[in-house]
Amino acid sequence: QQQVKQSPQSLIVQKGGISIINCAYENTAFDYFPWYQQFPGKGPALLIAIRPDVSEKKEGRFTISFNKSAKQFSLHIMDSQPGDSATYFCAASGRGSTLGRLYFGRGTQLTVWP
Amino acid sequence: SQTIHQWPATLVQPVGSPLSLECTVEGTSNPNLYWYRQAAGRGLQLLFYSVGIGQISSEVPQNLSASRPQDRQFILSSKKLLLSDSGFYLCAWSTLGQGPQETQYFGPGTRLLVL
């Protein structure tokens, strides 16, 4: 059973546009929600993360929005650039989970056209 | 600072041959270690995780095995590779008690092609 559901599977955005990737979860014990960015042939790298005590976290052009009641969180990339073209994974973990185990979404392949 | 290494970077192996992939972490002690597999264009599948030397937990039953002979070394092995073992293998680490324990840091990966 997929613990974290991610959509869309792929996304095409024009340069300067806003990219939005959504994730949903069921396990209310989850309390840590990171996003990873992966370029082709590379390992995923932590991009930004949020805990449910805040509804939004912003780092540069990247923003996580978190809706605890709906059990949803999303990544917004403002002023998307061709260099943002990558695969993005959302993930979730809980303090009660097996020693730091992360549950990943299936990923979203983002393409930003110049 | 912490770094994670994986080797080899790329490997082409015939079906039925053995496999050994190595992962080492520097700059931290007693990390949690993880092996993931990523099929082409797919998500991350957790294969094994380890909380200490000799302590391995398996997530998916298959012909792969893992070992942790040293604190910062994690090895993924197979006695006989299958075509379905092809993929991108990623090692990751996380720590307890130092910042967000759930944050995992990934290595550069090993691309395995079984022919």
Please explain how this structure is put together:
The complex is a heterodimer of chains A (114) and B (115). Chain A is 0% helix and 56% strand. In chain A, β9 and β10 (103-104) form a beta hairpin. The N and C termini of chain A lie far apart (38 Å). In chain A, strands 2, 4, 5, 9, 10 and 11 form a six-stranded mixed β-sheet that branches. In chain A, strands 1-3-8-7-6 form a five-stranded antiparallel β-sheet, with no helix packed on it. Chain A is globular and about 45 Å long. By secondary structure, chain A is mostly beta strands. The model of chain A has no long low-confidence stretch (mean pLDDT 92). Chain B has 115 residues and is an all-beta fold. In chain B, 0% of the residues lie in helices and 56% in strands. Chain B has no helices and eleven strands. In chain B, strands 2, 4, 5, 6, 9, 10 and 11 form a seven-stranded mixed β-sheet that branches. In chain B, β7 (64-70) and β8 (73-78) form a beta hairpin. The A-B interface holds A 32, 34, 36, 41-46, 49, 89, 93, 97-102, 104-107, 109 and B 32, 41-44, 46, 49, 51, 57, 90, 92, 94, 96, 100-109, 111.
